[in-house]
From TrEMBL:
GO terms for cellular component: endosome; external side of plasma membrane; extracellular space. SUPFAM superfamilies: MHC antigen-recognition domain. Residues 1-198 form the MHC class I-like antigen recognition-like domain. The chain crosses the membrane at residues 209-233. The keyword Lyase does not apply. InterPro entries: MHC_class-I_related, MHC_I-like_Ag-recog, MHC_I-like_Ag-recog_sf, MHC_I/II-like_Ag-recog. Residues 1-17 form the signal peptide. One of its GO terms (molecular function) is endogenous lipid antigen binding. It is found in: Cell membrane; Endosome. This is MHC class I-like antigen recognition-like domain-containing protein. Pfam families: MHC_I_3 (PF16497). Keywords: Cell membrane, Endosome, Glycoprotein, Immunity, Immunoglobulin domain, Membrane, Signal, Transmembrane, Transmembrane helix.
């Protein structure tokens, strides 16, 4: 009985705590995969998620970032979206050019595989944390930290020349900082407004799983008490028989 009560006291806050959409943190993350087969063949594709829901995709064949959900542009105006599209198109072109130049500079061998993971985690109370990590041939080599690019702890020393070049470009550093510190949390806060009902539905599914477990436990407790009561009645009867 003590165990069942303990389980219930653990489960109840889980069930009710879950129904509060805005009381928890939200992770928005973009993944970019760039493959360079040789100096003349490459492709870059992107995906973005809010938590476990995919929100955006960007195919190499497309000039436009597509919203997977109708509410994925958050509260940004179409003018702001066009401005962001323009920035990201410029980014994709210069990214390709830079990788090809670095490949020449460091005599890197093709094929080259790069994976980028960037985004922000927004906590209740408007606090957010940002991240931007880059992996080369599957190994984490570089990140954006504060206002500048930094090598990963295990990165090869020859990466230092790349980081030096990257950090000379103050314009790009300021843009990355702006995208991660301002645009990313604004997008997340906007999506929490425009996509609220779907996000709540997602949370709702956790709640209903919790409620089913709760219902099953309640049944078990009732059954347990019923059996106890039966045993008690039987014992009483047998005492009465003896007396
Ligand atoms: C580059 O790679 C692509 C895709 O693998 C291939 O079709 C093409 O022939 C290659 N080009 C050169 C110049 O090697
Ligand atoms: C990827 O897109 C770029 C720019 O539009 C294009 O030049 C390139 O050929 C594309 N790569 C592939 C593999 O389709
Ligand atoms: C949260 O921060 C954003 C800027 O990122 C701001 O526009 C918004 O008003 C803030 N919201 C609250 C509730 O403070």
């Amino acid at each position: 009985m003590g165990r069942v009560l303990f389980l219930l006291s653990w489960l109840l806050p889980q069930v009710w705590g879950n129904s509060e959409v805005l009381g928890r943190s939200f992770l928005f993350r973009c993944l970019q995969i760039s493959s360079f087969a040789n100096s003349s063949w490459w492709r870059t594709d992107g995906l973005a998620w809010l938590g476990e829901l995919q929100t955006h995709r960007w195919s190499n064949a497309s000039d436009k970032i597509d919203s997977v959900k109708p509410w994925a542009q958050g509260t940004f105006s179409s003018q702001q979206c066009d401005q962001l599209q323009y920035i990201f198109r410029g980014y994709r072109n210069s990214f390709t050019r830079d990788v090809q130049e670095f490949a020449k500079m460091l005599s890197l061998e093709y094929p080259i595989e790069l994976q980028l993971s960037a985004g922000c985690e927004v906590y209740p109370g408007n606090v957010s944390e940002k991240f931007f990590h880059i992996a080369y041939q599957g190994d984490y080599i570089l990140s954006f930290h504060g206002t500048a690019w930094e090598p990963a702890p295990q990165a090869p020393p020859r990466l230092d020349s790349v980081i030096k070049v990257l950090n000379q470009d103050q314009g790009t550093r300021e843009t990355v900082q702006w995208l991660l510190s301002d645009i990313c949390p604004q997008l997340v806060n906007g999506i929490l407004e425009t996509g609220k009902s779907e996000l709540e539905k997602q949370d709702g599914s956790h709640t209903s799983v919790g409620l089913i477990i709760l219902a099953v436990l309640t049944c078990l407790v009732s059954l347990f008490m019923f059996i106890l009561a039966l045993i008690w009645i039987r014992k009483r009867r047998s005492y009465e028989d003896i007396l």
